[in-house]
Amino acid sequence: MDGSDLVPGGAKQAFDQNNQPIVTLKLKSADKFADVTKTILAEKPNNQLVIWLDWKEGQKYEVEKTKKDPAYLSAPNVNQVLDTNKVEISGNFTVEEAKDLANLLNSGALPVKMTEVYSTSVGAQFGQDALDETILAGIIGVAAIFIFMMLVYRIPGIIACVTLVAYTYIVLLVLALLNATLTLPGIAGLILGIGMAVDANVITYERIKEELKVGRSTKAAFEVGGKEAFRAIFDGNISTLLVACVLFYFGTSSIKGFATVLIISILVSFLTAVWGSRVLLGLLVKSNALNNKPRAFSVKPSAIHNLHDGISTYDLKTPFDRFDFVKNHRLFLWIFTGIVVIGIVVLSVFKLNLGIDFASGTRAEITSNSPLTEEQVKKDLDDINMPSDNIVFQGKDNKTAVVSYKGALSQDEIAKFKTHFEKEYKHEPSISTVTPTVGKELAKNGLYALAIASVLIVIYIAIRFEFYMGVAAILSLLFDAFTIFIFFSIFQIEVDLTFIAAVLTVIGYSINDTIVTADRIRDIGRKMGRYKTKEDVAFAVNHGLRQTFTRSINTILTVIFTVVALVAFGSESILSFSIALLVGLISSVFSSIFMAMQLWYVFKSHQVNKKGPIATVKKKKRRNPSQPMV
Questions:
Q1: What kind of architecture, by CATH, is found in domain 361-434?
Q2: Of 72, 218, 371, 620, which is most buried by a Cβ count within 10 Å?
Q3: pTM
Q4: Tens-place pLDDT, residues 459-505
């Protein structure tokens, strides 16, 4: 008998009359089982019904039972002829052991033929070089952030640098405790997370500077500024967290690594950038060491008003007061529409340069200590009878060649390829293979992830702000994603799995900038009480954009520093990932200001024209005095 004689799903874990774990089986033929048990019973005392796992010719129960890890699953004794199709296997099972045995029996007739659908192998030296390059990029990016924060924010900037060191240590500690596999995208996620963690500091410090300018004391400015900044920080991080969770659910192993680091980074940044910075800066403030020292917060004494003048943070002058953002809203929206139309034409003509992750096939990276030539690589491929017309060189000095094949190479071909090039160039090639089925599945999952992330962000922004703000925000985010597609199509940069991760990261992160501005516009609207005309809406949008413009630039700059470092100094393996991030982040600077808020103005002014004045502060329901209190 073999696994095919079992009814599909007929093996189950159960309990006998003594409440001991057993395995019950349901067979297709009671007569066949009776014949088998009759034969086994006749061989007493060797009357064991041995259930083998992938039995091979020559294997014997007497030999296997002496081994620590025998090839059989179970060997119950047969004490009578069993003319039934329902069987119980009893023994000293635990519940888990009984469940495992049932699952193995349900797997059907063995052996099962395994078909390779997706594989990736990386040479040790290649992996080490890529790791070293990415870490170097991270060090350079972080150093740039440190210099920027100390120059722009002085004492609070130094505190931000201290908390960033703590942030990095805690993230690495958590990853070590989780025994998480740190992939190259994962390391990139850690570096990106450092840039994102400092955003909370930027938002908080800018609010503190505003409170100092209206004339508040250092202590009061610290308390009020920190409280006002928390809402925007919270909303921005939750939005990014939603996208990270979507990435983790739909991603492959390397993308899951990136998503894991991103999730941990967001949670840890709340601990260090929000709570840690607040505690450290609070100690300095409460010590009175910073009293009457506005320059320590990068605030000029001449910019400070008298608190008794009654000036609020919404009345402060900015370098952008002369610029009317709303006046040219039609021009801005037509420019964005034109870019979309041009992008559609570009994509239809040039299309995307799909890597093997989506187009299926095999991709091999050959690394050498000296520059490679096309003739040299072609000759090597001909020598092993594996020619390819698709050879692309990477790096400034052409020390890496990427060879692509339309079909999936067999294990023997991969072994031959590796042996030859490792012997020739002293570096083991990195090889990835994807079948058409997996390629389609990855593409489908990428689209699902993009759609789900977009819907989640719209829902969240609609709950925290309003529906129109959610729609305006997601349209600008989708424009950022579309810009990345256009850029990759024009320059024919290869699109791989990390590309999807980068697009989703841009969507999750870029919403931060939109939320900061939306939060300020909401506050201005609440101060106004209601929008009576479209001019009131324009006033709120203009003031909100002017007052958050510097903050928006500074928050995006801190992340761009790290991404530029990844592009310039990081590994070639994550170059497309880094470029996609850079293009998306640059696009988000413009789209959040000149598209998202302009769209919201159009939606809101239309609502005002149609329905009349709109209250911006929800009225609390009054209790009827005659109604008894409970």
A1: 2-Layer Sandwich (3.30)
A2: 218
A3: 0.74
A4: 999 899 999 999 999 999 999 999 999 999 999 998 887 888 788 88
